[in-house]
Amino acid sequence: MTFTALAMPSYKTGQELLDEARARVTEIAARDAIALRTSNPDVVFLDIREQPEVNLGVIPGAIHLARGSMETKIEALVPRASRVVVYCANGNRSAFAADTLQQMGYREVASMAGGFRDWVAAGGDVTS
Fold this sequence. Notes:
Blueprint: H1 14-24, E1 26-29, H2 30-39, E2 44-47, H3 51-54, E3 63-64, H4 70-77, E4 84-87, H5 92-103, E5 109-113, H6 115-121
Parallel strand pairs: 1-5, 2-3, 2-4, 4-5
Helix pairs in contact: 1-5, 2-6
């Protein structure tokens, strides 16, 4: 019996996947997201953090949808024509989520760089 060596597949690191997602999406700084929220009250802020993180506070009026269930629930909550700013704790999960939303047909979507952490540091409104 002869064994043939199989070529090892090429794998990507988590950082490489994140870099690729960020290259495909628009990122918006927290200070710009604050200004956008003020100038355009129709913008949907989508909080994709897990519940324990949400318990620390949220952007007023944001829709909470944990990242793990976003793909299956987003269409019932947010129309594809909406302008959406996705945020998480520090901007990594939101980049992946924004990339996924674009694949689902959402065209005006951005990831908030720095996430909720930068929103708070920039003086953005927070409710509990």
